[in-house]
């Protein structure tokens, strides 16, 4: 799996984030929202479930178009996005989001993909 990162904030260790999420929830703070954009239903559900267990408010979208529609209702704190998807791929989603949605253009986006070619890494 290749990971491309776009944004100002790096994700810390999972145990630290889980502890912080539980502490925030116990103090009445809202959980951070993470949008997972993945066309493979089972993988998307696994990621959303793991994020929810870790204390995040996790949302799932099947492709870039669905994710863009979800941005109308919710502003995520982080987006995890596959590259190869039908209708609107990850690169198209990123370009469209950054170009047409200035209200979410600063949301960090992490590309998750099984693709690992040099050209994709450079392009990402």
Blueprint of the fold:
Layout: E1 2-6, H1 14-26, E2 33-37, H2 41-53, E3 57-61, H3 64-70, E4 78-81, H4 90-100, E5 109-113, H5 118-123
Parallel strand pairs: 2-3, 2-4, 4-5
Antiparallel strand pairs: 1-5
Helix pairs in contact: 3-4
Key structural traits:
single chain; 124 residues; alpha/beta; 5-stranded mixed beta sheet; 5 helices; 5 strands; 40% helix
Provide structural commentary.
Helix content is 40%, strand content 19%. The protein has 5 helices and 5 strands. The chain has helices spanning 14-26, 41-53, 64-70, 90-100, 118-123; strands at 2-6, 33-37, 57-61, 78-81, 109-113. The protein has a 5-stranded mixed β-sheet. Strand 2 (33-37), helix 2 (41-53) and strand 3 (57-61) form a beta-alpha-beta unit. It is globular, with a radius of gyration of 14 Å.
Please, how many helices? 5
- Please, what is the average pLDDT? 81
How far is the N terminus from the C terminus? 14 Å
Name the strands of the widest sheet in spatial order: 1-5-4-2-3
Low-confidence stretches: 5-15
Helical residues, percent: 40-55%
Protein structure class = alpha/beta
Give the overall form. globular
How much of the sequence is in beta strands? 15-25%
* CA radius of gyration: 14 Å
Question: What is the H/E order?
Answer: EHEHEHEHEH
Instruction: Please tally the β strands and state the result.
Output: 5
Characterize the main sheet: 5 strands, mixed
